[in-house]
Specification:
alpha+beta; OB fold (Dihydrolipoamide Acetyltransferase, E2P); five-stranded mixed barrel; 11 helices; 5 strands; 18% strand
């Protein structure tokens, strides 16, 4: 049975990969381990009470374990109550969560668009940045846990956003569609520096101190300076604004709130794609006619899957 097939009250026995392990303390000072497990379909976490020093040493990220557990719901989210857990062997590549699509097609869509960019400065920036972070961009998740948190998630998120931008721009022909699409392609590439990769549950030092928006803006300026491009020119300035404003509101971590319609559109597409991924994940755990628990990332609302 795959993790994405688990239901509340299931008793499960399965093999999984440890994605992260955090040692915490109870109110009485006793140590316990919060362990996140994954397979190719998704991930689930649970608390291992009375964790031993040997378990702390053995249960490191990228370790395969055999698990017997009960599936419970806590604050609207499935979690495990461990009955037993021990190290096992196997091919770890089979237990890495991946994008639910053929990523070659989605990557080709991005690179084909870049090849046709008319603004030479924007095209050079895309070539340089995607080339510099090619391995990370194609393999990293888009977030630690919120959305597209699996192998290839960053590129999958970018590609589906690019498709939406291309389609929506046709309904608003007065927009600069190329500016919008280039903004989509580059808006999250800074996560290649901010994120620890697929394994780990904390940002890098650069990511924690600066964040992915500032990090990619620094790269843009550096590339401009090395290639005799005026980084204060209008085309570079507005592109940087789209990236700086893509979180929409300052309380959501944006540097600047959208002041161009293309920036507003980029933010809305980003929000839509992230929220639809949340709904997809919730639907995976629901049978028709079933309600989910409250989901923090969907305004703390419950989700219903219709019998249709």
């Amino acid at each position: 049975m795959k993790i994405n097939e688990f239901k509340e009250r299931d008793v499960v026995n399965f093999t999984a990969m440890i994605k992260s392990l955090n040692i915490r303390e109870t109110k009485t000072g006793k140590p316990f381990a919060n362990i996140e497990l994954s397979d190719s379909s998704g991930s689930i976490a649970g608390n291992l009470w009375d964790v031993t020093k040997k378990q702390e040493k053995d249960f490191q990220p990228q370790t395969l374990v055999q698990v017997d557990a009960n599936v419970e719901t806590y604050q609207g989210k499935l979690q495990l109550k461990f009955n037993s857990i021990h190290v096992t062997t196997g091919d770890i590549s089979e237990y890495i969560p991946s994008a639910p699509v053929d990523m070659k097609k989605y990557l080709d869509y991005i690179y084909d668009y870049v090849a046709g960019i008319q603004n030479s400065n924007w095209q050079l920036l895309c070539h340089k940045i995607l080339g510099k972070y090619k391995e990370q961009f194609e393999s990293y998740p888009a977030a630690l846990s919120v959305h597209h948190a699996y192998h290839g998630g960053l590129a999958f998120h970018t590609s589906t956003m690019l498709a939406k931008a291309n389609m929506l721009a046709k309904f608003y022909p007065w927009l600069n569609s190329e500016l919008l699409c280039v903004g989509v392609i580059l808006h999250d590439v800074g996560k290649s520096i901010e994120m620890p990769g697929l394994f780990g549950d904390a940002y890098t030092t650069q990511g924690e101190l600066l964040g992915h928006i500032e990090l990619i803006l620094e790269d843009i300026v550096e590339i401009c300076l090395k290639n005799d491009i005026d980084h204060k020119a209008e085309d570079i300035l507005v592109l940087k604004h789209l990236i700086a404003a893509h979180h929409g509101k300052q309380e959501w971590g944006t540097i600047s709130e959208p002041k161009l319609p293309e920036a507003a559109m980029l933010h809305m597409i980003d929000m839509m794609d992230a929220q639809m991924e949340q709904y997809r994940k919730v639907y995976e755990g629901l049978e028709p006619g079933q309600w989910s628990g409250k989901n923090y990332f969907l305004n703390n609302s419950r989700v219903y899957r219709p019998v249709l």
